[in-house]
Every structure is written in structure tokens, then in C-alpha cells.
Specification:
Blueprint (H helix, E strand, L loop, with lengths): L1 E2 L6 H10 L21 H16 L8 E5 L2 H13 L6 E5 L16 E5 L11 H5 L17 H12 L7 E7 L4 H5 L5 E7 L2 E10 L7
Parallel strand pairs: 1-2, 2-3, 4-5
Antiparallel strand pairs: 5-7, 6-7
Length: 215
Amino acid sequence: MHDPCCGSGTIAIEAAQIACGIAPGTLRRFAFEKMLPFSSADARAELQRLRSRARERVHAPAVPIFASDLSFRMVDFARRNAERASVAHAIVFNGGDALERPAPTLPADLPGTLLMNPPYGERIEVGGKAGAARAPMRESAEDRATPGDFFARLAAHWKHAYTAHPAGWTAWILSPDMRLPSAMRLKESRRVPMWNGPIECRLFRFELIAGSARR
């Protein structure tokens, strides 16, 4: 799995926890532990047994996880977050523009997955080659963040850099722009309704192949 716009590292960290068999909540405490029904020695002992069994299931990462971002400051931030989540060893972090980042090296029989939640103007803006381009902006939820040709250039880069892998790559993009497939000049294979906080989005899936998918 590769997130080329990793930001603070949320997607890569959660993917690494899954890849390592780390149960959700293993590294935190819960408010119910302070409630009266759970104050008995038996309840505390049972909770400890559950935590111990969860820790016993942790293993080396089953698949490689990669994360990169244009901002080296954010890469450092994501790496520190991964350390706090005990998965820094399971993620390869890099800096670099999403429009230039080469495909990570994977075993020949392992399919690759690109998963990204690109900026769409609610909190941060696009930088790098995309931000420097003086292309017209689309009339969409991404107006303040994404130059009009960013996704077309991203799709072209992916077709150039990610289609040589024998097992193939699949891309998933979370976006509030319902016209994203048209902007990328790709046909989505799935369109999953999702919400990013208060923002209605779609999780688009694209099969990356060289050339055109049209017959």
C-alpha cells in the first residue's frame, strides 16, 4: 500500500496496524475502565487477559507499506505519529511530489494499492508542481486546493510509473468531487459513498493500466 499524499500519516499508520495484526485500541485506555462495574479485580484481570491475547497476535508486517508527502515537515510528523503507534518499523517514509514519486518496489506476485485522501481546500492546499501550475480552477469542492489539471497529470503519471508491475496496481481516491473520474480521464470501477467529517465524498477505485481501457 502506498499513500503519496500521506499528510500526518493516518492512512499509512492504520494500514500498518492492520498489516501487523495490531488490534484497535491496544495502545490506549478507555473511559469505561473508570466506571464502577469495571472496578472489581475480576473485571480488571479479564481486561488484562484480553489485552495480553491481543498483543500475542501482533506480528511482522504482512505487506509493505509506503507513505510520502511533498512536505518534508509532514513526513517527519507522520513518522513521529507512526512511532507513537508502534508501527514506524512497518512504514517506509519518503518526501517528494505525488506527480513525480516513482512506484515502490513490490514482490512480483503482490498487487499494489494506491490509497490517498488528497487536499480539497478545507484545511490545506496543494503544493509542488501542481501548486505552481497556473491552470484554471475547477468549479467543485476542490476549487481552493487543486489546479484544474492536477488529477489528469496524476493519472498520466500513474499510467507511466505504476503499470509495469506484473501484478498490477489499483488506486483508491477519497474526494468530494463527483466529477473526479472525468478530471482524471479514467473510468472508475467502484464509487463508494463516504463522509469525511461533514463533507460528503466518494471513494473512487481505478484499475491502473497502460494506454486506454476502451476497446
